[in-house]
Amino acid sequence: MSDKPMRRVAILGGNRIPFCRVGTQYATSSNQDMATAALQGLVDRCKLKGERLGDVSLGAVLKHSRDWNLARESVLGTDLHPDTPGFDVTRACGTSLEAANLIALKIAAGQIEAGIAGGSDTASDVPVTVNEAYRKILMEMRFARSLGQRLKALLKLRPRHFKPSFPGVGEPRTGKGMGQHCELMAQAFGLTQKEQDELAYESHQKAAKAWQDGFYADLVTPFRGAEKDNNVRPDSSLEKMATLKPAFDRKSGKGTITAANATPLTDGASAVLLGSEDWARDHGLEPLAYLADVEVAAIDFVQGEGLLMAPAFAVPRLLARNGLSLQDFDYYEIHEAFAAQTLCTLKAWESSEYCKEKFGLDKPLGSIDRNKLNVKGGSVALGHPFAATGARVLAGAAKLLKEKGSGRVLISVCTAGGMGVTAIVER
């Protein structure tokens, strides 16, 4: 579209509201309520009151029909200049990381100077609708041309028509939920409940320490009485975790995924500010880090590939394009949809057979230093409001590099639909 050179994209700040378990502090909050709060916190933190930004992109996975213009409406609820545009985007759990990619590309190409990416999701305020049979009768009544036709449609109603329809996050093409798919992955890679519990335990311990040390103090603003993520369990123990029964495979005797080593249903929202270096300098904002590259992948999970394995496929391509090895990173932020997903990804990269058969590589990508993995806690502990996780991870990664002074972070987020979004952040 242009022969101008691409510009570096700086990560200038991040903000989120505390992530809370379904049905707790945000039980009556909408996606727009939460997204607006996350955006306003970022506006306050980065002193953007009255500022007209180039664009704002955010989205949600579980949406009411009223949320059709979620980004724009959320912007209008903040102190940003009302001339700031906004657009919705959805890529399941990778939504806000994909939003960051889109905003970054606009900045890099010179279309805009600065923008915000984010996401919001609520498992508490899900759209409960009428069932399909009832809907058809209602539509028949709506388009009836006479009172007689309306009464004829009305007389078709039976008690069964009033059974509500709840949204689900199962895969339409397989009929299986994400947990069921991940259980199959865990069994394929031979994971034990013990090693999944160990990763989950570490996630809680790291998250609790990060909160205690103040790491999240300038990344989170209170909302609706919540000041911290309410799923973090510093008192959890491996002994307690071991007593939990399988959550998704209760009959075969092979189930290893439990409520303790999977992410809980969570409500929350997050946002991250991106900008050009010139815009950052003009607004007195120091770049925390830079969004260097993004790679998206999809796999054929319908034919048996592991539903949540797509990021494992994206990373080799991302590394090759940037001339890097898997070990050339100071931190690894691998979204813990389930502890099993993270472990399956690591085992895939370590396997010579898997890397050759699936990625066409002559040798495995290798192991990572587990001490560099999700060092401030992962989604198992912090929670996972689907569309909000990517921006939460991106803002945290940028702060890690700001505190260190230099380095790289590899980000990996799996999503429904057999997709994944990965990114490199550097300073």
Primary descriptors:
alpha+beta; 16% strand; 427 residues; Peroxisomal Thiolase, Chain A, domain 1; globular; 14 helices; two-stranded antiparallel sheet; ten-stranded mixed beta sheet
Please sum up the structure shown.
The protein has 14 helices and twelve strands.
Report what the structure shows.
There is one protein chain. The protein is α+β, with helices and mostly antiparallel strands and 427 residues long. Among the domains are: 129-165, no CATH class; 178-216 and 292-422, Peroxisomal Thiolase, Chain A, domain 1, CATH 3.40.47.10. The protein is 35% helix and 16% strand. It has helices spanning 31-45, 70-76, 95-108, 132-142, 147-154, 178-188, 193-212, 238-242, 277-282, 310-322, 339-350, 352-359, 379-382, 389-404, and strands at 10-16, 20-21, 55-59, 86-88, 114-121, 129-130, 164-165, 266-275, 289-298, 331-334, 408-415, 419-426. The strands form two sheets. Strands 1, 2, 3, 4, 5, 8, 9, 10, 11 and 12 form a ten-stranded mixed sheet that branches. Strands 6-7 form a two-stranded antiparallel ribbon. The longest helix has 20 residues, at 193-212. The mean pLDDT is 96.
Provide the CATH topology of the domain at 178-216 and 292-422: Peroxisomal Thiolase, Chain A, domain 1
**Level of helix content?**
25-40%
Average pLDDT, rounded to a whole number, is: 96
From N to C, what is the helix and strand string?
EEHEHEHEEHHEHHHEHEHEHHHHEE
Shape: globular
Largest beta-sheet details: 10 strands, mixed
The CATH architecture of the domain at 178-216 and 292-422: 3-Layer(aba) Sandwich
The count of strands amounts to: 12
| Structural class determined from secondary elements | alpha+beta
CATH hierarchy, class of the domain at 178-216 and 292-422: Alpha Beta
- Unreliable sequence segments: none
The end-to-end distance, rounded to whole angstroms, is 28 Å
Rg, Å, rounded? 22 Å
CATH superfamily of the domain at 178-216 and 292-422: Thiolase/Chalcone synthase
Strand portion, in percent?
Answer: 15-25%
Number of helices: 14
